[in-house]
Amino acid sequence: MVWPFLAILLFNKFELGAAEIGLILSASAIGAALLGFFVGALSDRYGRRNILLLGSLINLCSFALLAVTQTLAGFILAMTLCSIGRAVWEPPASALIGDLIDNQASRELALQLRYFLINAGAALGPIVGVWAGLSAQQSTFGLTSLSYLLLALAFIWGFAKTEKGQLAKSNGDGSVDLGSTLAILRRDHVFMVVIVANILTMFIYAHMDSSLVQYLTRAEAPRLVELISSMIFVNAMTIVLLQFPLMQLMRKLDINGRIMIGLVILAAAQMWFALNPVHWFWGWMGATFVLSLAEAILFPTMSVQIDRLAPEHLRGTYFGASSFYALGWALAPLAGGVVLEWWGGPTLYWMLLALCGVVFALYRTTAYLSRPQWPEQKEQTISSGESAKITG
């Protein structure tokens, strides 16, 4: 409901420039991106339950602080805690699905469903905020804090009700060693290139939440809060309505094939954003729709991709390493703010269009890279010649 309005709040409350807002948003997320990897590895060693509850508690406190703080230092601290809470939450949440579901097809459907439900919430949040007159108001963060309290209670109940045999899988494996895990990751060349490519993909997409809002604010786009709320709603509803039809349509394509199609659509969205007149309301809706199609293909597929690449005993670590995607998210506000301040919005989106080509090229190189072998999981290993063709 509230996160995309944070740039507006910082601008209105503290009269900060685009680069300053970008720096704050970026700095609050960079450390959290690095933390996510270690959290994923720790969840392999110590289990998912307590780390998931810790993430919920951090988010509860961070949004409660956002609701009451009146100083810039307070906002920066709260936003940093928000980013840390997300980094603590995401890797074990995704890995837990793999722990509890053995069948690959069912597991991938669950990962798709999780992303679907996240966006169903994102579709409802802005609309509720607009109807309640809460959008871009600081008090709304209190409702977000309450939602994390309910989430923590739901997890306590859910783990208590989970069958002991399933719960044992998420209680951790003390034999997992972080040092040897890092050595394995360094040898997994396909995974390393995928991480870099997906960091760039996240960097491209993240300008929707940060730079675009600043661009429209400073260009004095008409009906700004309504425009941003509508874009968030179009984004979420496109995914809610089209994610599963798109998944069915692409079921015969391998993972890389789906990602390539998503990248082409993502590039088309950047071109539309670059060319769209600031005052054309429905043009922004159209560009957001195209971007949302790319998101509906790319983001769930990226989660499935990590699940396919990860050996069972290192699933949390691999999902934790995928937290480095947040580096792209973290750097986007800073880079976008600087480009907006010096060259303007259209230049930013032409640069992002070129970056889509770089990501496309990186994925092409994975066909020529190798992966390590895991003696414990020989039946799941993928030869170097097959590594880029992780079939659906």
From TrEMBL:
<feature type="transmembrane region" description="Helical">
    <location>
        <begin position="228"/>
        <end position="247"/>
    </location>
</feature>
<feature type="transmembrane region" description="Helical">
    <location>
        <begin position="140"/>
        <end position="160"/>
    </location>
</feature>
<keyword id="KW-0813">Transport</keyword>
<keyword id="KW-0472">Membrane</keyword>
<feature type="transmembrane region" description="Helical">
    <location>
        <begin position="190"/>
        <end position="208"/>
    </location>
</feature>
<feature type="transmembrane region" description="Helical">
    <location>
        <begin position="259"/>
        <end position="275"/>
    </location>
</feature>
<feature type="transmembrane region" description="Helical">
    <location>
        <begin position="347"/>
        <end position="363"/>
    </location>
</feature>
<protein>
    <submittedName>
        <fullName>MFS transporter</fullName>
    </submittedName>
</protein>
<dbReference type="InterPro" id="IPR020846">
    <property type="entry name" value="MFS_dom"/>
</dbReference>
<feature type="domain" description="Major facilitator superfamily (MFS) profile">
    <location>
        <begin position="1"/>
        <end position="369"/>
    </location>
</feature>
<keyword id="KW-1003">Cell membrane</keyword>
<dbReference type="InterPro" id="IPR050171">
    <property type="entry name" value="MFS_Transporters"/>
</dbReference>
<keyword id="KW-0812">Transmembrane</keyword>
<feature type="transmembrane region" description="Helical">
    <location>
        <begin position="316"/>
        <end position="335"/>
    </location>
</feature>
<feature type="transmembrane region" description="Helical">
    <location>
        <begin position="113"/>
        <end position="134"/>
    </location>
</feature>
<dbReference type="InterPro" id="IPR036259">
    <property type="entry name" value="MFS_trans_sf"/>
</dbReference>
<feature type="transmembrane region" description="Helical">
    <location>
        <begin position="20"/>
        <end position="39"/>
    </location>
</feature>
<dbReference type="InterPro" id="IPR005829">
    <property type="entry name" value="Sugar_transporter_CS"/>
</dbReference>
<dbReference type="InterPro" id="IPR011701">
    <property type="entry name" value="MFS"/>
</dbReference>
<dbReference type="Pfam" id="PF07690">
    <property type="entry name" value="MFS_1"/>
</dbReference>
<keyword id="KW-1133">Transmembrane helix</keyword>
<feature type="transmembrane region" description="Helical">
    <location>
        <begin position="281"/>
        <end position="304"/>
    </location>
</feature>
